[in-house]
Amino acid sequence: MGKNEQMRFSDRKRQEMDFQFPEIPMNIVLVYPSIPPNTGNVSRLCAATGSRLHLIEPLGFNIDDRAVRRAGLDYWDSVDLHVYPDFGTFLEKNSKGRKFFFSTAGKKIFHDAAFEPGDFLIFGNETYGLPDEIIDAQPSDQVLNIPIRLDNVRSLNLSNCAAVVLFEALRQINA
Fold it and tell me: Which residues bind S-adenosyl-L-methionine (predicted)?
């Protein structure tokens, strides 16, 4: 656009889609997240899909951190948020429900899993992923990977991973 031209923005309203979100919400779990905007983005994702957000401490920020709130905008009141002091407490309080762990160490592609309402989708820290002791304690068919070209990047952004996997799970459930 030229320097003196004004952009026009449509006043179209968001369209309702013929899409059934599961009655039993999906669960997004972030283990030791350290980058506030990623957690804020995932909180917005959870608000938009009716999914629960579980955060495992230690967190690399205060949950009231401005950067977290800013990334989640005004959606925090719509997030079903659960915070746990450690991974063991999370497991104790959520003993029911299938758990899938996402790691670059996974040998199974995530879209080959058959997701169901209420599943827990578990992601690690942005810098180092899930700890080895967590991955090693899981059956190999529950440790999933998102394929990427290895010659370009080492991994995807945490909030992108959560979105890709959650919407694949919702697509399968809605099918």
Answer: 124, 146, 155
- Which whole-number Å values give the CA distances from 91 to 8, 67, 125, in the listed order? 51, 28, 18
Consult the annotation and say whether 24 binds a ligand: no
**DSSP run (H or E) holding 92:** helix 87-93
9 is a domain residue: no
pLDDT grade, residue 139 (50/70/90)? very high
The residue segments making up the domain with residue 51 are 27-174
The CATH number of residue 117's host domain is 3.40.1280.10
Whether 22 maps to a domain, the answer reads no
Confidence (pLDDT) at 108: 96
What is the chain's percent helix, strand, coil content, to nearest 5?
35, 15, 50
Q: Is 155 among the annotated ligand-binding positions?
A: yes
Quick one: pLDDT at residue 70? Answer: 63
Instruction: Tell me if 163 is assigned to some domain.
Output: yes
Please choose, from the candidates 73, 41, 143, 67, the residue with its C-alpha nearest in 3D space to the C-alpha of residue 101. 143
Does residue 146 have a known ligand-binding role?
A: yes
Domain count for the chain: 1
In a domain, 6, yes or no: no
Take residue 171 and report the two structure tokens written for it.
């697509």
